[in-house]
Amino acid sequence: MYRSNLRNDKPYIPQGVGEIMDLLGSMMLSSPTFKDKAGYFPERNIDTEFFALNEGLKTIRKKVGEENYQALVVLSDKMRAYFEADQEDKTEDGLKGRDCIIEMEDILKASARRKPR
Predict the structure, then answer these.
(1) What phi, psi does 5 have (nearest 5°)?
(2) What is residue 5's DSSP assignment?
(3) Cα separation of the two ends of the chain
């Protein structure tokens, strides 16, 4: 397998609702540790994933509206707390964290359906 020696030290920040939805899908699969088991992204962890999510939410703040943005930030914070409390995925906290992802996706879908005024 070919691996480039070029490193991009700039963290990935999702731009737009679609990219945030993609990130949430990835987070659902890699939770609760967010480590890349395949080894392609050794730098990925809970800190990098939540940094990307929270910075991505800032990019869509105006698009989704202040109320939805605040709800998404609260869910992000709750989700992280649940996953940190259940690093081995053995308690209900992991499930609660995944429920937060689903709630976030629902908010994003609903905000995308609304017509801009």
Answers:
(1) -85, -5
(2) S
(3) 50
Nearest alpha-carbon partner for 96 in 107, 82, 86, 84: 82
Q: How far apart are CA 58 and CA 115, in angstroms?
A: 20
Of all helices (H) and strands (E), which one includes residue 66? helix 66-85
pLDDT digits (tens, 9 = 90+) for 11-35: 889 999 999 999 999 999 999 999 8
How far is residue 101's CA from residue 24's CA, in Å, rounded to a whole number?
A: 6
Burial of 35 (0-12, 13-18, 19+ CB in 10 A): middle
* Backbone φ and ψ of 58, nearest 5°: -60, -35
Which pTM value belongs to this model? 0.87
> 85-113, pLDDT tens digit by residue?
999 999 999 999 999 999 999 999 999 88
Distance CA(18)–CA(95), nearest Å, equals 24
